[in-house]
Amino acid sequence: MDKLLTSLLLSLLFILPAIGVDYKFFDSKDLENIRASAQTDWGKKIVDKLKAQVADREKFGFDLPTKITSRGQNYVCPVDFVELEVKLDDPKWHVCPKCKKNYEGEYYDAGWRNKYQHSVHPYILNCAFIYAATQDASYAKKARELLLKYAEIYPNYPNFSAEFLARKNNGYWGKMFEQWLEDSGFFADVCPAYELVRDT
Fold it and tell me: What pLDDT is stored for residue 16 in this prediction?
C-alpha cells in the first residue's frame, strides 16, 4: 500500500504542473527557423532528399494492412539467418537473398506487414517536414490523409482479452504491431507530423 501511495504522489508531481499547459513540438520560432534553413544551399539539399524519399515510397502505394504484424526481427531466413527481401507491393514475397527460397505462411506475412507499417511513418514525417519547410500544401495533404487512414483503421485492429494474453503468456500484445511498445513508438514518431499538418 505504501508503494502505491508513493507512486501516486510522485506521479502527481509530474502531472499537476502540466495541467493547462499547451505543449508543442515546434513553436513559431522553430517553424521560422525551419523555413529559413530550407532556403539555404544545405537546406535545399535536405528538402530535395526528403522529396526523393517521398517519391520513392509513393511508387508502392498505401494499402495499409488491417491485420496485426509480428516482430520485424522475425522476418529472417531460418536457414541463412539473414533478413528476407521486402517488396512493399507484394505481401507474399518473402525471399531469402542468399538461398532464394520464398517462404510462405502467416508467420512471414505478418513479418512483411511489420516492414510495411514501418515504411509508412518515415513517409508521413517526411511529408510533414517538407510542408513545414516549404509550405507546399500538397505534402501536408499526403501526411494528413495517411494519419486519417490510421485513425479510421486503428480501432478495428484486434483487442486482446486477458484470457488470450494469459494463454499466450504475453501481456504486451499491441493492436497494430505485436507489442504495445511498437504501437506507441510508431505513433510517438508521427506525433510531430500531426502537429505540423493538423491545421491545414
Answer: 53
